[in-house]
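In this section we walk through a basic example: taking a raw amino acid sequence and producing a predicted 3D structure, encoded as discrete structure tokens. The instruction is simple. Fold the sequence below.
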Amino acid sequence: MIDHLGINCADWENSKTFYDEVLGVLGYTRQMDYQVAIGYGRDGKPDFWIADMSAGDAKGPNREVHVAFQAADEDAVKAFYDTALRLGAESLHAPRLWPEYHPGYYGAFVRDPDGNNVEAVFHGAKPQG
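The resulting token sequence is shown next.
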């Protein structure tokens, strides 16, 4: 069900040190590092993300959370997106390939009624073209 989860951190430097160490003792390491967001996991797959809240729009006591749900295929991602919009969700990113994450990453992002960034993702999409 849950593909990956992300939180925003107010004290970026302290958070990086904290998660490097506490996740390190559990066998998790940095799998991706975008300077303002770091994904931790194993075997090349980041499952838990931290982000520097001062680098984005998520500020204040109710900082957004990012949750990505696994989808069975590209059609399921599209259905998630269309349903969310029908229910009044704000579109963050329409369904598309995200090759900057990895080949075959197909996802759509919406903002839920409480302002959280919610995604549906399928990891086996075929590159277009």
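Looking at the output, two observations stand out. Residues 1-54 form a domain with the 2,3-Dihydroxybiphenyl 1,2-Dioxygenase; domain 1 fold (CATH 3.10.180.10). The chain has a mean pLDDT of 91. In the next section we compare this with other chains.
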